C-alpha cells in the first residue's frame, strides 16, 4: 500500500491535470478546438491511469489481470467504433 505522501502527490497531480483541461478550452487564441479536445483526451487517459493504478490499487495486481483489463478496454473501443460506423 502506498503512503499518504504518495496519495497526496497523486491528488495534486490530478488537480493540475484538471486545471490543464480548463486551460485548453479557455484560451482559444493558443489552442484551437481540435487541439483542446485532443489534449483533454490525453489528460483524461493520464488521470484514469493514476486513479486506477493508485486509488483502486490495480498497480499491485498480477500482470495477467492487467492484460485482461487492457483486452477488455480494447474490445470496448472496437465496439464503440463499430457502433459509430453503423450510425453514419
UniProtKB/TrEMBL annotation:
Q: Which InterPro entries match?
A: Cyt_c_oxidase_su4_prok
Write down the Pfam families for this protein, in alphabetical order.
Answer: COX4_pro
This protein is called Cytochrome C oxidase subunit IV
Q: Which UniProt keywords apply?
A: Cell membrane, Membrane, Transmembrane, Transmembrane helix
Q: Is the keyword Magnesium assigned to this protein?
A: no
Main localization (coarse): membrane
Where does the protein end up? Cell membrane
Spans through the membrane: 7-27, 33-55, 67-87
Source taxon at top rank: Archaea
Record organism: Natrinema versiforme JCM 10478
Amino acid at each position: 500500500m502506498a503512503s499518504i505522501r504518495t496519495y497526496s502527490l497523486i491528488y495534486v497531480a490530478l488537480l493540475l491535470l484538471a486545471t490543464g483541461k480548463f486551460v485548453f478550452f479557455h484560451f482559444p487564441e493558443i489552442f484551437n478546438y481540435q487541439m483542446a479536445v485532443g489534449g483533454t483526451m490525453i489528460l483524461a487517459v493520464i488521470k484514469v491511469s493514476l486513479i486506477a493504478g493508485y486509488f483502486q490499487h490495480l498497480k499491485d495486481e498480477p500482470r495477467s489481470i492487467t492484460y485482461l483489463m487492457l483486452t477488455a478496454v480494447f474490445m470496448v473501443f472496437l465496439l464503440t467504433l463499430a457502433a459509430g460506423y453503423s450510425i453514419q
